[in-house]
Amino acid sequence: MAESKISPYSLTDLKNTTDDALANYLRGLHFHQDNTKLDVRLAIGYASVIIAAATFAADYKLGWEATKGWTAVAVVAYALLNGALTYWTWAVEKGCVFDGAKDGRKISIASKTNKHEPTYYLTVTDSGSGSTASTRQIQAPFTAWFTADGFFVAKPFQQWLATSVEAIGDADTKNASRDERDELAAPGPEVERIAQSNGSVEASGTESKGKSGKRSKKRG
Question: How do the domains of the chain map onto residue ranges?
Answer without folding.
Answer: 2-37+94-217, 38-93
